[in-house]
């Protein structure tokens, strides 16, 4: 059995076995082809801040238990740590994932969530894509005078997912728009 005969819909995961390579998903109406794929954007590190704060609290209580009775300075330190912990945990809620999936197909890539799908970014407008371990941002450079698309790793669900998205953008750009190279853009073509 080849890869084309056992595929799933990039949007809804419907089993496409037995359907043509280029078709429309009977479940959700998504037009797919042989190279259509998706990457789930999951916030697996959503509670990492809470885990870190929990370890600090545990260490603090062990320290206070060994120390003995708490005086005024001990209560002040407890209040400061409690405020710090609340701010640290609250910060994690500012960066939800931007969508449920990043979908790649013939006309470009788009973000899908149950509330809607963004318009596709065309392969012909993409110059390059990268995601560094240092800052964790997915940077998609575009041709012409368009600003680059910059997406935080927190909005994607982690640096690993950002790197996976960048690699998929580069791979599919070579398939769908191989003639669009940076040199063409610099000459104004």
Question: How would you characterize this protein structure?
Answer:
This protein is of the alpha+beta class. Helix content is 35%, strand content 19%. The chain contains 5 helices and 9 strands. The strands form 3 sheets. It has a 4-stranded antiparallel β-sheet, covered by helices on one side. Strand 5 and strand 6 form a beta hairpin. The C terminus is likely disordered.
Using brief descriptors, characterize the structure shown.
189 residues; disordered C terminus; 3-stranded antiparallel sheet; 4-stranded antiparallel sheet; alpha+beta
Could you give a short description of this structure?
The chain has 189 residues and is an alpha+beta fold. It has 5 helices and 9 strands. The two termini are 43 Å apart.
Between the first and last Cα atoms, what is the distance in angstroms? 43 Å
Q: Which radius of gyration do the C-alpha atoms yield?
A: 23 Å
Q: Give the DSSP E fraction (strand runs of 2 or more residues).
A: 15-25%
Characterize the main sheet: 4 strands, antiparallel
SSE series: EEEHHEEEEEEHHH
Mean pLDDT: 77
**Uncertain residue segments:** 180-189
> Treating each run of at least 4 consecutive H or I residues as one helix, how many helices?
5
Question: Tell me, what's the shape?
Answer: elongated
Number of strands: 9
Structural class: alpha+beta
Helix content: 25-40%
Which strand order spans the largest sheet, edge to edge or round the barrel? 3-4-5-6
List the helices and strands and how they pair.
Elements lengths: L22 E2 L6 E2 L4 E4 L7 H20 L4 H20 L9 E5 L2 E6 L2 E2 L8 E6 L6 E5 L6 E3 L1 H4 L2 H18 L5 H5 L3
Antiparallel strand pairs: 1-2, 3-4, 4-5, 5-6, 7-8, 8-9
Helix pairs in contact: 1-2
